[in-house]
Amino acid sequence: MDWYHVTWDAHGFTRAVQPPGRPAWQDQAAWTDIVRVCLEMEGWLGSDSLHVFTRQRPEAYTLPLAAPDVTALLAELIHRGLFDAELAIQAASAEGLFCWETPTG
User: Fold this and answer.
1) What does the pLDDT look like over 11-31, one tens digit per residue?
2) Which of 18, 29, 41 is nearest to 76 (CA)?
3) What is the CA radius of gyration of the chain?
4) 3-state DSSP call for residue 89?
5) What residue ranges do the domains of the chain occupy?
6) Of the candidates 66, 31, 61, 75, which has an alpha carbon nearest to the alpha carbon of residue 48?
7) CB 10 within 8 A of CB 21
8) Which of 5, 47, 66, 81 lies at a CB distance of 3.0 to 4.6 Å from 16, suitable for a disulfide?
């Protein structure tokens, strides 16, 4: 999945996506706008995802955990207090949806 890139800085994170055979696109979210973060763990046959909900739009920013740097982004969300480390550990060994409401959410 080398066509899916995630970066972040002091302000927030950016997704830059260039899917094969489709138009490229980019979007971003500010750390201060995040209200909920969910890990969707689908098991061995599924595609695990990180869902980031913000005040700015009703739909989540969905990031595949298999994409480069998405697990590092999860670590950054934990570091910033936007997801719980214990819940991430629990999710890593289970299937289902694991959500964390941010303190300001």
Assistant:
1) 999 999 999 999 999 999 999
2) 29
3) 13
4) helix
5) 30-101
6) 66
7) no
8) 5
SS3 10: coil
Q: For Cα atoms 76, 93, 88, give the angle at the middle one, nearest 5 degrees.
A: 20
- Decide: helix, strand or coil at residue 98: strand
Q: What end-to-end distance do the CA atoms of the chain give, in Å?
A: 31
Entry pTM: 0.92
Cα 37 from chain centre: 7
Spatial separation of the C-alpha atoms in residues 71 and 91, rounded to whole Å: 13
Please check whether residue 17 is in contact with residue 3, taking contact to mean a CB–CB distance below 8 angstroms: yes
Position 46 scores a pLDDT of 75
